[in-house]
Structures are given as C-alpha cells and as structure tokens.
Amino acid sequence: MLKKIALVATLALSASTAFAAGATPFYAGVDVGSTKVDGLGDRKTSFGGFVGYQFNENIAIEGGYRRLASYTFGAVDLDLNQAALSVIGSLPVGNGFKLYGRLGYNNIEANGSGAGTRASASTSGALFGI
What is the pLDDT of residues 71-86, one digit of tens each? Predict the structure, then answer.
C-alpha cells in the first residue's frame, strides 16, 4: 500500500515538473483518495488521473478517470470505476490561492465477475462541487 502511494506521489511530482517547464494551457495530474460504499465493507484506496485545458485564468475543462474500489466476496470480484467531465470556474483570491467550483457529468460503473459469469451496471448524473 505504501509503495503504491509513493509511486503515485512520484508520478504527480514528475508531471507537475514537466508542466511547470513552459506556459501551456494544458495540465494533468493524479490523485489518491478513499472510497466507502455503504453495505460493501471497509474503506478502499482509490486512485485516478485527470487532464484539463485552461481557456483563461477563470475557465477550464477537465476530464478524469478513477478506480474507486475493488471488492472480493468469496469467488465474486467487483470493481467500481468513475469517469467525469467538468467545467471549472475559478476566482483568484490572492497570494496564489483560488476559489473554484465544478459542474459536470459523472458516470460510475460497477463490473462484477464470478463463477464464469460477468455483469455490469452503471449510473450517471451531475457532478458539482466548490
């Protein structure tokens, strides 16, 4: 687990160094988090990546993919993944800090397999945050 976090942190630092080399409207990154699904067990480490394009200092568009969690129940494996596309608005508040909001589309997919059978289900909806 600690090796995965160290690898992700190294990739994030490498990506930020590469993108800091020149002024470009494109950006990318990786993230690590925690996912808790009610009724499915303990928290799981989630990880993902995102890419974006900043039109100006206040508007950007961003797409991302995240592995939310993997669960095993006996011979059944369940994977949960998320894909998202967002418009991001930001407002500089001083000294390198910005207040930002996100509005977009979010798709969560569950893929299960076990005993020679596969099944999947998905749901989608609005994605928003400040």
Answer: 888 888 999 999 999 9
Q: Which pLDDT tens digit goes with each residue over 26-67?
A: 999 999 999 888 888 788 999 999 999 999 989 999 999 999
DSSP alpha helices (H): ranges in the chain?
A: 2-20
Tokens in use for 109?
A: 């997919």
Do the beta carbons of residue 44 and residue 51 sit within 8 Å? no
Judge whether 77 and 70 are in contact, CB under 8 Å: yes
In the structure encoding, which two tokens stand for residue 3, read together?
A: 């090796």
Question: Could you give the C-alpha distances from 21 to 15, 17, 74, in angstroms and in order?
Answer: 10, 7, 49
Place of tokens 């799981």: 44
Angle at 67 between CA 108 and CA 5, to 5 degrees: 155
Alpha-carbon distance 72 to 63, whole Å?
A: 29
The whole-angstrom separation of Cα 96 and Cα 84 is 26
- Under a CB-based contact definition with an 8 Å cutoff, are residues 30 and 8 in contact? yes
